[in-house]
């Protein structure tokens, strides 16, 4: 099945997805107990969800401050050209860029960056500004952190 193709998911699939988002390290045996299936049936469903592109990978969540990043900011970039190759090349070499979204409106990209300090943020935004006009918004706090994805109704 092609990636991102619409699959018909049942409530057991939804439960598997929810549990794996809660704890991606859970074993198939534990997952099977949670969703009331055999381990082999659960493993087959996880394989089907993965092969179908619903589950795209597994990762951990880390505290950015614990890794030395005390500043989070969103940078809006008004990119003056339709040739996005320089943008892709620049951000590929910037580990501080943790998200980038091509958007509609006056800006072409919204970029989420992590910085060690305000001076570091100035360095990062300076590099991004070589591509076009930028507007930077520093995050005070995040009252709604990243959420798990639930099925669309």
From TrEMBL:
Pfam families: AsnC_trans_reg, HTH_24. InterPro entries: AsnC-type_HTH_dom, Dimeric_a/b-barrel, Tscrpt_reg_AsnC-like, Tscrpt_reg_AsnC/Lrp_C, Tscrpt_reg_HTH_AsnC-type_CS, WH-like_DNA-bd_sf, WH_DNA-bd_sf. Keywords: DNA-binding, Transcription, Transcription regulation. SUPFAM superfamilies: Dimeric alpha+beta barrel, Winged helix' DNA-binding domain. Residues 9-70 form the HTH asnC-type domain. It comes from the Bacteria. The keyword Transcription applies. This is Lrp/AsnC family leucine-responsive transcriptional regulator. The keyword Coiled coil does not apply.
């Amino acid at each position: 099945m092609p990636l991102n193709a619409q699959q018909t998911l049942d409530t057991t699939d939804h439960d598997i997805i929810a549990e794996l988002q809660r704890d991606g390290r859970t074993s198939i045996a534990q997952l099977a107990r949670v969703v009331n299936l055999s381990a082999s049936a659960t493993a087959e469903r996880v394989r089907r969800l993965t092969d179908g592109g619903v589950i795209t990978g597994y990762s951990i969540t880390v505290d950015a401050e614990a890794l030395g990043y005390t500043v989070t900011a969103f940078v809006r970039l008004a990119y003056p050209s339709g040739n996005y190759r320089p943008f892709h090349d620049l951000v590929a070499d910037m580990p501080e860029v943790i998200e980038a979204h091509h958007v509609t409106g006056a800006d072409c990209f919204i970029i989420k960056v992590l910085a060690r300090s305000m001076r570091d943020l100035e360095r990062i935004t300076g590099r991004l500004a070589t591509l076009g006009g930028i507007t930077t918004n520093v995050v005070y706090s995040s009252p709604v952190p990243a959420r798990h994805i639930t099925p669309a109704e």
